[in-house]
Amino acid sequence: MLTLLNLLQDGRFHSGQALGAALGVSRSAVWKQLQQLEADLNLPIYKVRGRGYRLQAPLSLLDYASVNEAEAPWPCQVFDSLDSTNAEVMRLLASGGVPPFAVTAERQTDGRGRRGRRWVSPYAQNLYYSLALRIEGGARQLEGLSLVVGLAVLSVLRSFGLDAVGLKWPNDLLVNNQKIAGILLELVGDPADICHVVIGIGINVNMQQSVEQIEQPWTSMQRESGGLVDRSALVVRLGQCLNDYLERHRRQGFATLREEWEAGHLWQGRSVNLIAGVQRIQGRVLGIDETGALRLDIDGEERAYSGGELSLRLSDDS
Fold first, then answer.
1. Of 115-119, 136-140, 252-256, which one has max mean pLDDT?
2. How does DSSP classify residue 73?
3. CA angle at 250 for the pair 136 and 140, rounded to the nearest 5°
4. What are the extents of the domains in the chain?
5. Residues ≥6 apart with Cβ < 8 Å to 4
6. How far is 303 from 295, CA to CA, in rounded Å?
7. 196: which residues sit within 8 A by CB, 6+ positions away?
8. H/E run at residue 82
9. Would you state the pLDDT for residue 39?
10. Could you tell me if 204 and 126 are in contact, meaning their C-beta atoms sit under 8 angstroms apart?
11. Max CA separation in the chain (angstroms)
12. Residue 188 burial (10 A CB sphere; 0-12, 13-18, 19+)
């Protein structure tokens, strides 16, 4: 079935006879595989008498050889389907996997974002990527780490021509107040000693149509650029940028990246609500401190906030 999908990914018409010849099967067997593609992967296929079959829209399938080219900073496994790439990295670490290594997949059946939210993962349209790292030297190596990853993703998206993209504290990237990417970090082990961190990154790449399960405004790289994005090339670029920023963070600490992060923060100087459970804190964004905590001006007093359960929203009057 995946071989058939590779033949169809260009979005052009292919006759049943040509597909059957390429696969070494009958036309009726091709028809059965096409039905299975539609049912299993929710990929609409157009059927036109005299012309053949084509996907509703072209796809960019992940290519193992391409994402593991010579310039790749670490090996990257490519899966057709996973519950989540973060969960797979956790399993690989538990079975003795040696970081750094990455995992990506064409789709996730149980992808997660921050605060346990579901990350919608349609087949072969977006990027679902997780990286395993070994962290030594205590908690200092974790300071601002999710923000550093955000800088790497920002650099990647801008290199693909998305000049309007920016950061939203702590772990999102937006274009015109629409989410285009998110980051989720999970720790395994003792953060005060030696531990592993799993860096999960989701990027909306070629998703075009509205998805009912998404509860917030969103956009994608294709929506913003107008063209199909090569997802394998995106994986390579992401690995290179992550490697560069993580090495800077390891050698110099987060403080040296603080100004660069603030320069990319879309809500710098804006009036916001910081939500912590049922509590809402109103203030104006001053920036971040040397650990990555959010600095707010609250009635003339500066306060810093950090933590995984915090959520930031623009105030109504901002």
1. 252-256
2. S
3. 55
4. 2-55, 64-262, 267-314
5. 19, 23, 30, 33, 34, 37
6. 6
7. 93, 99, 132, 133, 134, 135, 187, 188, 189
8. strand 76-82
9. 86
10. yes
11. 75
12. middle
The CATH topology of domain 2-55 is Arc Repressor Mutant, subunit A (1.10.10)
For residue 253 the two structure tokens come to: 């600490």
CATH superfamily of domain region 64-262: Bira Bifunctional Protein; Domain 2 (3.30.930.10)
Residue 111 has a pLDDT of 66
Q: Report the candidate in 112, 133, 130 with the shortest Cα–Cα distance to residue 121.
A: 112
The length of the chain, given as a count of residues: 318
Identify the bridge partners of residue 272 per DSSP, sorted by sequence position. 283, 314
Task: Find out whether 129 and 104 touch, Cβ atoms under 8 Å.
Answer: yes
Residue entry with tokens 């509590």:
279
Beta partners for residue 284, in sequence order: 271, 297
- 27-41 and 16-23 helices cross at what angle (nearest 10)? 90
Q: Which two tokens stand for residue 284?
A: 């104006």
Pairing of the two strands 52-55 and 45-48: antiparallel
| DSSP run (H or E) holding 175 | strand 172-175
Tell which residue, 309, 152, 132, 158, has the closest CA to residue 243.
152
CATH class, range 267-314: mainly beta
Residue 265 tokens, joined: 């923060």
Q: Annotated catalytic sites, by residue? A: 114, 179, 313
Beta strands at 271-276 and 195-203: parallel, antiparallel or unpaired: unpaired
Query: Over the stretch 159-200, which tens digit does the pLDDT of each residue have?
Result: 999 999 999 999 999 999 999 999 999 998 877 778 899 999
Identity at 183, one-letter amino acid code: I
